[in-house]
Amino acid sequence: MVKNRWLLVAILVVSTALILGCAQEQQPTTPSGEGKVETLYFGAPISLSGKFAEEGKASLEGMKIAAKWINDHGGIKVGDVTYNIEIKAYDDESKKENVQSLIERLATVDNVKFILAPYSSGLTLAAAPIAEKYQVLLNSHGGASDYIFEQGYYYVVQTLSPASRYQTGFLDMVKAKDPDAKRLALVYEDGEFSRAVHEAAREYAKQLGFEIVYEKTYPAGATDLSPILNELKAANPDVLIGGGHFADGQLLAKQLAELKIDLKAISILVAPTFTSFYEALGNKAEGIAGPAQWEVGVKYSPEAAEKLGIEWYGPTQEEFLSAYKEAMGEEPPYQAAEAAAAVLSYAKAIEKAQSLDPAKVREAMNDLEFMSIYGVWKIDPETGKQIGHEMVIIQWQNGEKKIVWPESAANAEPCYPMPTWDEKEGGATCGS
Amino acid sequence: MAFVEQLISNLLYGAILGSVYGLATMGLSLIFGVLRIVNVGHGAFIMVGAFIAYWMFILYGIPPLISLFLAIAVGMAIGLAIYMLVVKRLVDAPELASLLAMFAIGIFIEEFAKQIWGADYVGYSWEIGGVSMLFTEVPFTKLLAFASSIVIAAVVYVWFRKTKIGKAVRAVVEDREGATTCGIDVSRIYALSFSLGIGLTVLSGVLVTLFTPVGINVYMGGEYTLKAFVIAVLGGLASPWGAFYAGFIFGLIENGSYTLLGLIPGVEPFGLTRFLSSVVLMLVLLVKPTGLLGGE
To answer: CB contact, 8 Å: A150 with chain B?
Structure first.
């Protein structure tokens, strides 16, 4: 009995201490001589479990790093109030149903006005109508689909490059390196994403003056692409863009090598950005390029921003890398960088609007342009689609994944034209 | 001219691919023929073979041709274990029970493999050159896949026809009760056939990587399961060599029809090749409901 009473007292003491501690934390600290300091919440329904758990965790860490940087650098100033940012995250379990109710909860119960979209196009698409309904801003950092931004939503904006721009940077690069390379071929997977990418790329290529000499799709799960590639060879293209996912991207590169179809440049979706691509293909991967949203090693910096006449905002690459490594014990994937950029864009836009009203902040975004670790941020005022950010083009050179485009991000020169298959058989690499 | 050249090139690749498909279906047919069990987890065993080839090459530099022996040994051991633990108890159970059990085993193997090899798409690069052949380039690895498939199928054929135990297996396929009366230990034949069927399937996984040494992934089997079922039915479900011939035909149709379908303006021929293979399957079944070699 006595023992129990002591236990009760102990619990009471501890919980009182805890409550007091929490209460103290919640009290806004007011530095002398300055205006009020308050906390501003950014909502984040993000996948911490389920199939997007890895991507979701990386995104959340990216957001936190950006928020901390903003708070450490004076917060967001609206009038004479300084706002410190906090990310209010809920696990959506990678499920659409959860996303919708979490947006509702954030907008109504938590009274959050600025929401960072969930990971993936599918979940962002589920979130968009709910955000629109409650007139809270939704910033997509993991949903590349163009479709989301063609529904007429006003409160939905995008930070990452849309699918329609995945292969356009590569075409710009080829055009800049070799205006005579005109014969373009497209060979891609018959799927929603790769179709969106390549149909947009085809139109863009025509504008740049490319001649489309071959275009074919293959079904998902194809095990032999030789029927297409035999035809492709006869079309005698200079440049090839294509691919879709992991397996078919590897297969496409492998069979181009087997059939010895020499091209000046190749850009394949998704597959080449993974280290396993080089492991699978060996030096046959040399010179093969592919688009990526962001890569460790990009050179976006305050100096690069100055050169372009754009303002720089947020942590430097080094600061971001070390903060991420410290928290997660590994190098950040691109999901972390794009999520961080979304947080930075909110902060920038709120400060520009001098208001916490989502409609005014959305309006301020229309002519907002800045550069961060992730690249340029600028949206199309009509649709909210990202138009400032460029996909970085990676290329395998001498066994290393190098960033070759855009120039403001590049850490290596493009290897152009890439070595022929026969040269590679003899051991040639890019740069040898 | 270009048309004919492409058709011939495609048929050549189709023949090579078809031989691999054929071998990758024999195990399925053998198990169905003897035990009347539909191995819906078939593709998972192909995946295991693919990873054996990958691991042996990446870790020890062992060429896939040697991995073939390891693969059949590992496959037979896995097969025997599954037979002893699960299948033995289900042979006389309703067919749905064994179907579900094989489905579960397939998923289990995939998830188990994911713990070992992860979810990445991997590949290996065994460079032994190639040869210009009939208007196209063919790497030696693909020719080896072709030759090995034929040799292995022939060995299995001879084993079934000429050895005593092979004949016993055939007797069980024909008439289970009759075989028992003749003194054949049916449960031993079951164990052997199941084990051999899985062994052949795992082995075919190595050949699959000889043809396509990239895109190896724990979930790669699904595509092969689907094709193996079509091919098995085409060949007459219970006949392993029927399956081999059918695989061959399937490969030729899949690749050969591409050039022909490409002549139709405005269509994407690659998507239609699968449709065409299904049409051929349907026609064969209409003419000969037991499949090509169903009576064998």
So the answer is: no
* Residue B17 sits at the chain A interface (C-beta within 8 Å): yes
* Residue burial A32-60, b: 16+ Cβ < 10 Å; e: rest: eeeeeeeebbbbbbbbbeeebbebbbbbb
Q: Does A97 touch chain B (CB under 8 A)?
A: no
- In chain B, residues 198-217 whose CB comes closer than 8 Å to chain A: 208, 211-217
Q: How far is A33 from chain B (nearest CA, A)?
A: 56
Cβ–Cβ below 8 Å for B270 and A219? yes
Task: Tell me what the pLDDT averaged over chain B comes to.
Answer: 90
**Averaged pLDDT score across all residues of chain A:** 91
Note the pLDDT tens digit of each residue in A256-277. Answer: 999 999 999 999 998 999 888 9
Side by side, the strands of the sheet bearing A392-397 are A211-218, A183-189, A239-243, A265-269, A288-292, A392-397, A400-405
The pLDDT confidence band at residue B203, using thresholds 50, 70 and 90, is: very high
Q: Which of B6, B214, B255 sits opposite A224 (nearest CB)?
A: B255
**Residue of B267 and B254 predicted with greater confidence:** B254
- Which part of chain A has CATH 3.40.50.2300? 37-161+298-377, 165-292+391-425
Backbone angles phi, psi at A429, to 5 degrees: -130, 170
Chain B neighbors of A281, CB-CB under 8 A: 123, 125, 214
Look up the ipTM and state it.
Answer: 0.88
Check if A218 contacts B (Cβ < 8 Å). Answer: yes
| A269/chain B closest Cα distance in angstroms | 14
**CATH fold of A165-292+391-425, please?**
Rossmann fold (3.40.50)
User: What CATH number matches the domain at A37-161+298-377, 3.40.50.2300, 3.40.50.150, 3.40.190.10, 3.40.50.720?
Assistant: 3.40.50.2300
Provide mean pLDDT across the span B70-95.
93
3-state helix, strand and coil shares in percent for chain A, rounded to the nearest 5: 45, 20, 35
Reported as a pLDDT band with limits 50, 70 and 90, residue B39 is very high
User: What CATH topology corresponds to B2-287?
Assistant: ABC transporter involved in vitamin B12 uptake, BtuC (1.10.3470)
